[in-house]
Specification:
This protein is of the alpha+beta class. 31% of the residues lie in helices and 33% in strands. The protein folds into three domains: 95 residues, no CATH class; 133 residues, Jelly Rolls, CATH 2.60.120; 72 residues, Phage tail protein beta-alpha-beta fold, CATH 3.55.50.
């Protein structure tokens, strides 16, 4: 996982790739593939950037695009660009989505907002219909309510929904190519770069493909479902809700997780980033329960079980195989 400065540079690079690839410019696809393969964080950042481009392109008008672009450019301290170019606008907006702030698109119908949580930030909101949503750290979500539909696009991250009952107006949560539909229930959705994870705590939800609306499964309380972005879909299985929803009480529960993935999970909650610098360590399996943000305790636990050497900087802890 990158430190905050490195992540900012990665996000900007991802925004540039997305703007060129989706804006119709000629792209060095071989170079793009090499960039993706350099670091797992590159693929994650690009997925967020591409999702933000598509999200913004669907609903924003010209005046809103220009206003958001000016705001994004001002925050980034970039020179003012006077000629309107959709590719530049989208790149600025993607950068704004990647920044640790929330910005508003204005109100259409009942509610229309794009929200992001920052590193280590969790937030609970009450929506226009009385539904409550708790956002995990590093989550990007757009809420669009109309008289006939409650629609949420989960671009990245994780959210827990407590849906107010309204039989005439279902809530649909889109995450990548999948949609979760509920009337009155409680569930979480996590959007990863290549998959979506749904955990149902109460009530009932249906899971479908977004484009075709074909129902893939109807979930029951206490079940989880992992949905890859490809054609293959696994059936719902029993979930340990205490573990699956531990993030809501500020805990990270790791159960036989690869060290690289465990470090990435801990890095959602702390400016002290854990970097698995030695490829030989990435596949080591770790288990345990940690307080979100307590990276020092996580590193100490890893050191107690594995022959690991630690190098510290002001913003990161690097893990190397002991010599």
């Amino acid at each position: 996982m990158s430190n905050p400065l490195q992540q900012s540079l990665i996000d900007e690079a991802a925004a540039g790739w997305a703007a060129r690839r989706l804006g119709g410019d000629a792209v060095d696809e071989a170079g793009f593939t090499r960039w993706l393969d350099e670091n797992l964080a590159h693929a994650e950042a690009y997925d967020r950037a591409e999702a933000a481009w598509r999200l913004i392109g669907e609903g924003a008008g010209t005046s809103e695009l220009l206003a958001a672009r000016r705001d994004a450019l001002a925050r980034a301290r970039r020179p003012k660009v006077t000629r309107f170019d959709r590719r530049l606008v989208a790149a600025g907006l993607i950068a704004a989505v990647a920044a640790p702030t929330a910005w508003w698109l204005g109100r259409r119908g009942e509610e229309d907002q794009l929200i992001q949580t920052a590193l280590g930030e969790q937030r609970t909101l009450t929506l226009a219909d009385g539904s409550r949503v708790t956002l995990d750290a590093l989550t990007v979500m757009r809420v669009r309510y109309t008289p006939g539909l409650r629609s949420v696009d989960l671009v990245a991250g994780r959210a827990y929904f407590e849906v107010a009952k309204d039989a005439s107006r279902p809530m649909r949560v889109r995450a990548g190519p999948r949609t979760v539909t509920a009337l009155g229930t409680a569930f979480s959705v996590r959007r990863e770069p290549r998959e979506t994870i749904v955990v149902l705590a109460e009530g009932k939800v249906s899971v479908s493909n977004h484009e075709s609306a074909a129902t893939l499964a109807v979930m029951r309380p206490g079940q989880t479902m992992v949905l890859g972005d490809g054609l293959a879909v696994s059936a719902p299985v029993a979930a340990d809700l205490d573990h699956a929803l531990a993030w809501r009480r500020g805990q990270v529960v790791l159960d036989n997780v690869a060290l690289a993935d465990a470090a990435a999970e801990m890095n959602h909650y702390s400016t002290l980033q854990v970097v698995v610098a030695d490829a030989r360590l990435r596949g080591l399996r770790v288990s345990g329960t940690f307080n979100a943000g307590d990276s020092a305790a996580f590193v100490e636990a890893v050191q107690s079980y594995f022959p690991v050497r630690v190098e510290k900087t002001a913003t990161s802890v690097e893990l190397h195989a002991a010599r």
